[in-house]
Amino acid sequence: MIGALLNVKIRGLIVIFAIEPSEMAALFAFVSTWIWFVVLGVLLAGPVSYWWRLRRMRRKRAALQRSEWMVETEDSPAKRLGPAGQDEGLFTSHP
Fold this sequence. Notes:
single chain, mainly alpha, about 70% helix
């Protein structure tokens, strides 16, 4: 639906500028086009707000899972530790 509206509006502007490429045509295009930006904003507000809320809830769910189940993150210090929970750097030979 949004694509069809934009397509019709853009084709209409192309026809206007093909027939009369002047400052008056540009003024007419601006005056008749600004309201479509409002319409486009209203039509896109629903999907954008849904996407924003979905991202926010997924982030919140991941944080809750990490805090409740103590799920390790990728940069967790526990992954750098050896099998006994000790730093592997302790067992390397030093010259």
